[in-house]
Write a structure and sequence with these properties.
Blueprint (H helix, E strand, L loop, with lengths): L48 E2 L2 E2 L23 E2 L3 E2 L5 E5 L6 E4 L5 E9 L7 E12 L8 E8 L2 E2 L13 E13 L4 E10 L10 E6 L7 E3 L11 E3 L2 E2 L3 E4 L3 E6 L7 E4 L5 E11 L3 E10 L21 E7 L5 E5 L7 E12 L4 E10 L13 E2 L1 E10 L5 E5 L7 E4 L3 E5 L12 E9 L5 E13 L3 E10 L16 E6 L7 E3 L6 E3 L4 E11 L6 E6 L20 H7 L3 E3 L27 E6 L1
Parallel strand pairs: 5-15, 6-17, 19-29
Antiparallel strand pairs: 1-4, 2-3, 5-7, 7-12, 8-11, 8-13, 8-14, 9-10, 9-12, 13-16, 13-17, 18-20, 20-25, 21-24, 21-27, 22-23, 22-25, 26-29, 27-28, 30-31, 31-37, 32-35, 32-36, 32-38, 32-39, 33-34, 33-37, 38-40
Length: 610
């Protein structure tokens, strides 16, 4: 029954009929009974089947235990599930893993091979106490460099103490287990072979070792239940080997900037936790325990401080702290650039294990220095925090590993504040006859207000007679009803252009730059008189960006009053982060629209039809 108690039998079958004469008392309720029997060792080949059938109506004298009344049983005959007879079988072969690779001399417990015991087709669990393995050398004597060889079932070593294989020879070697190993039927068990590799082993392309099995070896495997010794078709050994392991002198480590490292961007001074780079580490020959990461900050500066004394900010002055994180966001260590030193080393709080032949990334974040009066951050500095060098230890060999890294981060450019530009979707794609050509908005970063000194546009028309009297207006609200202050009537920016140039045309504030307050958004509308609108007419308005950062002008990246025309001529979108004060046109605190968030290099585009 379901409790394991015998209700009837055992009896032997007679003519394929099994008759139980026992009296069985079935309690009130549902009961489940299981039929068990012994399969004879002969007469039932593999894949033979057994199927039991019964007809309850033929059962003898069913009656109620108390009343003694006869119980009516169902007359339906039913057949139980087909049971397939399988004896103990096993297939033995070497896994292709580990694949061909280098192993470091001096390595401890290095996995050199894997042997698979396949009992997936076995009818019972199988057991073995020894494992014959074969060793193939690249050059005579290579096997002699191995010692302390163990066979592992997961994290359990099967041969310890005197059973550890300390003398390895080319050809056949037999490993004796401390206890018999059982391979459960229906499963495949993989046994790993590990050894210590002598630090005195000769290295080179021909100095190799390879573990496997040979069909000519004697394997002793028995069925756990039957006790039968497997042979013939029940014991299949395929001559095979794991990958060739080549003795190597030591680990190597490649350190580069990962492809996921951020692209060039502008950032506000005083911002913390800015991702400035992602470093990729790749170890070969063995795992590496990384303990130190060297960094260098190499910022290209063309800025001028508001004091007019040049740019004293270089290297560490643009940063206050650097942090290193693993790919899951765990802090690994920090680095501080002292004084004007452009190099710093982070000793990790805990060693970072770099798995051989696997890319491991480390995210570099930084706190940016403040920009302003007496602040260390350099206006317009391009801050690049690159990997410089590293130090670690080979996990297997214990060798110290040092080397240099390959730089290549894009960097962040430092300003006190910066604008973000976006197209305003409140203007529909039709109705161009109303003269509204484009709507867009500019938001100043929370770091401070942003000044706008020039907008530049292009217009492209289709089946329209002309667009004249073009003007630009600024508003403080999204309904375009509250004009910005400091400009012409109604918030008009600059003058109305009776007939815009066929190419690009500029709109510049006449007296004072447009100042967008910190953290706020201003809204802008480009208008014109549109004539000759008909079916299929359209006007495409583009707010132009700049394709490169503006350099090489008077006073660094800025311009003085005498050359402001040069600035506006060389740039499309002209703005200021107001580094120390609200910038006027004579201040040296203006730059162009390269890489402004929301303003793509192709410009901000709006199309309106009729």
């Amino acid at each position: 029954d379901e409790n394991g108690s015998v209700g009837a039998g055992p009896v032997d079958a007679a003519g394929n009929v099994v008759t139980f004469s026992n009296s069985i008392t079935v309690p009130v309720g549902a009961k489940t009974y299981t039929l068990k029997g012994k399969i004879p060792s002969t007469g039932f080949p593999n894949s033979a089947t057994v199927q039991m059938t019964t007809r309850p109506s033929a059962w003898t004298n069913p009656m109620g235990q108390i009343a003694g009344n006869t119980v009516s049983m169902t007359a339906t005959q039913f057949t139980m599930n087909t049971m397939t007879v399988r004896g103990a079988t096993i297939a033995i072969g070497a896994s292709s893993n580990p694949s061909a690779q280098n192993v470091v001399v001096g390595g401890q417990n290095v996995i050199l091979g894997n042997i698979q015991l396949d009992a997936s087709q076995s009818g019972e669990d199988v057991r073995l106490s020894t494992l014959p393995v074969t060793v193939t050398e690249g050059t005579s004597g290579d096997a002699g460099a191995l010692s302390n060889c163990g066979v592992w079932d997961g994290t359990t070593q099967l041969n310890t103490g005197s059973n550890t294989l300390n003398t390895v020879a080319a050809g056949a070697n037999t490993v004796t287990f401390d206890n018999s190993l059982t391979v459960t039927k229906g499963t495949v068990k993989t046994l790993a072979i590990s050894c210590n590799v002598s630090s005195g082993a000769t290295t080179g392309a021909s100095r190799t070792i390879q573990f496997g099995v040979n069909s000519g070896s004697t394997f002793t495997v028995t069925g756990l239940q039957s006790g039968n010794t497997l042979s013939g078709a029940s014991l299949v050994v395929t001559t095979s080997n794991s990958g060739v392991q080549t003795y190597s002198s030591g680990a190597s480590l490649a350190v580069t900037v990962d492809s996921s490292s951020p692209s060039y961007a502008i950032n506000a001074g005083g911002t913390t936790g800015v991702t400035v780079g992602v470093i990729k580490f790749r170890a070969t020959n063995e795992n590496v325990s990384l303990t130190k990461i060297g960094l260098t900050v190499n910022n290209s500066s063309t800025s001028t401080k508001a004091t007019g004394s040049g740019n004293p900010s270089y290297g560490s002055n643009d940063l206050t702290q650097v942090y290193l994180y693993n790919s899951t966001g765990t802090l690994l260590g920090t680095a501080t650039f002292v004084g004007t030193n452009i190099n710093a080393t982070s000793t990790l709080s805990a060693p970072l294990t770099l798995t051989r032949d696997v890319d491991t990334t480390v995210v570099v974040k930084a706190d940016l220095a403040t920009v302003g009066v007496s602040a260390s951050g350099g206006v317009g500095d391009l801050v690049k925090v690159d990997p410089a060098d590293y130090e670690g230890t080979g996990v297997s060999s214990g060798n110290t590993i040092r080397g240099v890294a390959t730089a290549g981060v894009a960097g962040v450019r430092l300003f006190k504040s910066y604008p973000t530009v976006a197209l305003d979707t409140t203007l529909g794609s039709t109705g161009v006859a109303d003269g509204r050509l484009m709507r867009f908005k500019i938001t100043a970063n929370a770091g401070g207000p942003v000044g706008i000194g020039q907008f530049k546009f292009t217009l492209a028309t289709s089946t329209i007679t002309s667009v004249t009297n073009v003007s630009l207006y600024g508003f403080t609200d999204s309904s375009y009803s509250s004009a910005i202050s400091g400009q012409a009537t109604g918030g008009q920016i600059g003058s109305t252009l009776a007939l815009p140039a066929a190419a690009a045309f500029a709109m510049a504030p006449t007296a004072n730059p447009v100042q967008v307050p910190a953290g706020q958004t201003y809204y802008f509308e480009l208008r014109g008189s549109v004539a000759g609108v008909q079916t299929g007419s359209s006007v495409v308005a583009t707010l132009l960006a700049d394709s490169a950062y503006l350099t090489g002008l008077t006073s660094g990246f800025n311009v003085a009053t005498a050359t402001f025309a040069t600035t506006t001529g060389a740039a499309n979108f002209v703005w200021s982060g107001n580094s120390t004060t609200t910038s006027a046109y004579h201040d040296v605190d203006w730059t162009n629209g390269f890489s402004i968030p929301g303003l793509p290099s192709s410009g901000l585009i709006q199309t309106r039809g009729n």
